[in-house]
């Protein structure tokens, strides 16, 4: 991909795509925004003249303001929330009540109301410190509209059938489905506007409605806002004109701020001294571009960042901004130079080796030369640190480089014979996991037994450094969209159940500048039934822009691989809670993990509508897979209502509108969400004020802030497992697999309403002292899957106890490779392969 960044030397114009913190795609001086329904990210490339002025402090911010008082808290994750705070005892209640129906405040919930959204979190479990007073929204601009004094209060919103654009009076028409199914047109008007949200109310009509809806200001186009201001603001009042400038600055709409300030200066010549303030606005736009380039560089899109820095109009911005660009550019150049220096040093060391050794290492040296980058530099840390040491011999230095490249940083292997043998071991392991068939795999195991570097400890360290072991299916690469593949029958045609399970069907989008040597976080996104996977993928990764040759969405910018499975049948209209649907999602993920460089510790599950319900259920049923789950308009039912103990292991993020459905969400699902408001859980509930069932695209910057939190990774392998299950297929949790579930526990979700007893079975397993493993659960048989980081010593005898057995089982690990490779081949998880599998009871 080539980055579209150009400079016009005659007009000092820069055209480089940039996305601000509030998620709006634009040039360094542009303000394109999400369309008002939030269904797509819109991108428009404009040109803007950067005036060559000296640096100046923006004086516009001192023009006078009316600031609201907010408070700010920082969560343990590092995310900050601002707004008005209230402590409540339960989500299943009026959110402004101090307590609920006599419930004790044993687990207080913190409500943060920022005017647009109400965010609910568990205070003691998630908040890092006491709240701090902060300056809130600088000014709220009020517009007089014809709002009814009384009317029918809208508490539940049906399907939204259409929304018109706001006109110059700040009014629009929204069409919703009424209780009888008929379409209802309601005229709305903006009555309050600030940098965070617009208050949109139903206007006088027959019949009259009372409806207070909040819409993110970021979802309204800048030119729409400018038309409204020019119609509703007194254009002869300089203070009101400057208030508009301040509004756009606070909203980080710098292009609009520049335009309005320029117009105001022309209308009021006495303000000519304020021309020097334009450079301040330009500098802030430039800083947005610098921040965007830094983000792209941090996720592996370094060519994009280099293009931005190389074409940056240094003579059009202030000294501090120029210094930022210089430092960022030098940082990239320093990394490039480090790569070059290490390759040259290793080439020189190889030249000093005897010819036979040198020839045997040419292949791996070529790999290092071609694959070394900022992402893979840590693999050569030992070599870089010790290459000039007089106490380390030539062979030891080369061994450190080769072993580090093959096994990752910190390998410490200084035996060149062993390090050289790892090349052959790595190639055989990759063949076993990739193209080898059933007949070839035993032969590979036999060959490995005769190689010095084939110990299981070495192989386990080789696995995470492997390139993807399989190729994408023939014909799956999209001919027009770079990095996109269509796997299986993704067209939506009806399929037999067995075919859907055996052959996963999904779309996958790789990020720009994809490098298979680099690990990428992954989003598995589930569209609602009846909606194509393409729409869900585009919601997260952005629509494809042919002029740019790439998508410009948030997943793209943040360097995520997006997988969009076709998880339901073509005729399916709702999520059915079946193992078939789970398998369709999980098999798509595993299929992609064999072919793309997905970081298994950073795989997130998300969806909209019934796709969100599916994500919610699958995440709780298989908590060992996920770094987190995002539900947008999900509705809990069946197993979700029973699986709350499993939520302790997964960060959860829920987005919904407070008026969605016939009853408010906190009445429908408040009890379920309450179960997650626990000191041990990481759960966030976001409620948009006055909104129905929408896709809430304005939330996506917050979603990626949450996704990118350093602690939102797959939890370490637990020594204690306390989960529940009640469905076939929900039988494996980390290192424990259950056999057939007991009849009183297992429920067929299709026959859920007919089940007389709905009670989940508890699973209790732990690794304890004396190298003991205890297991108990709703099955008569178990499979233990062992690896060193679960708390057992595989070099010693392992004692296995079931609660019902008086005599324990004993097991000794023999160090065989077959189980390690088979587990990796089946589950596609190269980071946490299991070394051994033990059937319990062993004597059955």
Notes on the protein architecture:
The chain has 844 residues and is an alpha+beta fold. The chain is 30% helix and 20% strand. The protein is built from 23 helices and 36 strands. Strands 9-5-6-7-8-27-26-25-24-20-23-19-18 form a 13-stranded mixed beta sheet, with helices on both faces. Strands 10, 12, 13, 14, 15 and 17 form a six-stranded antiparallel beta sheet that branches. A five-stranded mixed beta sheet has the order 28-31-32-34-35, with no helix packed on it. A hairpin with a 4-residue loop joins strand 21 (544-545) and strand 22. Mean pLDDT is 89; it is low at 1-66, 94-105 and 492-501.
Q: What's the tally of helices?
A: 23
Strand content: 15-25%
The dominant shape is: globular
Count of β-strands: 36
Largest sheet: 13 strands, mixed
Q: Helix/strand/pairing class, anyone?
A: alpha+beta
Cross-sheet strand order for the largest sheet: 9-5-6-7-8-27-26-25-24-20-23-19-18
Layout of secondary structure:
Blueprint: E1 6-8, E2 13-15, E3 18-19, E4 25-26, E5 69-74, E6 80-88, E7 109-113, E8 117-122, H1 123-126, E9 132-135, E10 141-142, E11 152-153, E12 160-163, E13 171-177, E14 183-193, E15 197-202, E16 209-210, E17 212-216, H2 222-232, H3 238-250, H4 254-267, H5 278-298, H6 302-310, H7 319-351, H8 355-360, H9 362-371, H10 381-386, H11 394-407, H12 416-433, H13 440-449, H14 456-462, E18 484-487, H15 497-502, E19 506-509, E20 520-526, H16 533-541, E21 544-545, E22 550-551, H17 554-557, E23 561-565, H18 579-593, E24 598-608, H19 610-621, E25 628-632, E26 652-657, H20 665-668, H21 670-676, E27 683-688, H22 700-707, E28 720-725, E29 732-733, E30 736-738, E31 761-768, E32 772-776, E33 782-786, E34 798-802, E35 809-811, H23 818-827, E36 836-840
Parallel strand pairs: 11-16, 20-23, 20-24, 24-25, 25-26, 26-27, 32-34
Antiparallel strand pairs: 1-2, 3-4, 5-6, 5-9, 6-7, 7-8, 8-27, 10-14, 12-13, 13-14, 14-15, 15-17, 18-19, 19-23, 21-22, 28-31, 29-30, 30-33, 31-32, 33-36, 34-35
Helix pairs in contact: 3-4, 4-5, 5-6, 5-7, 6-7, 11-12, 12-13
